[in-house]
């Protein structure tokens, strides 16, 4: 019987312990991301975006960054609506969007246009 040298034994033990962790890391959520632009296709920062689960009414909220980008990581599978609100713009809403496990859903949600009472 051949005895293993110490470094080889350690490598085998580490690999044996790590293998179950690799199989346990399966995806159970999806991602929703996109960019908010105004009617002239200019990025809009500071827009409040709300992602609402149609079956539970549970919502997630984020704010668009300087590039108008937003991201909702780790979203449970289901059907969602997305609303975008910002001072000076009318409410924009996108409904019936499916989030699936392991997929990334990209939604472009432009504010619907300027509110007449807040603009000009």
Care to describe what's here?
The protein is α+β, with helices and mostly antiparallel strands. It has a domain at 30-108: Immunoglobulins (Immunoglobulin-like, Sandwich), CATH 2.60.40.10. Helices cover 16% and strands 38% of the residues. It is built from 1 helix and 7 strands. The protein has one helix at residues 6-24; strands at residues 30-35, 48-53, 59-63, 69-75, 78-85, 92-99, 104-108. The strands form 2 sheets. Strands 3-2-5-6 form a 4-stranded antiparallel sheet, with no helix packed on it. The longest helix is centred in the N-terminal third of the chain and has 19 residues, at 6-24. The chain is globular, with a radius of gyration of 23 Å. The relative contact order is 0.22. Mean pLDDT is 75; it is low at 3-25 and 115-120.
Structural class: alpha+beta
The biggest beta sheet reads: 4 strands, antiparallel
Low-confidence stretches at least 5 residues in length (pLDDT < 50)?
3-25, 115-120
Order of helices and strands: HEEEEEEE
Q: What's the CATH first level of the domain at 30-108?
A: Mainly Beta
CATH architecture of the domain at 30-108: Sandwich
- CATH fold name of the domain at 30-108, please? Immunoglobulin-like
Number of helices: 1
Strand content: 35-45%
- How many β-strands, per DSSP? 7
Order of strands, widest sheet: 3-2-5-6
Q: What best-fitting shape do the alpha-carbon axes yield? A: globular
Mean pLDDT, all residues: 75
Rounded to an integer in angstroms, the radius of gyration calculated over CA atoms is: 23 Å
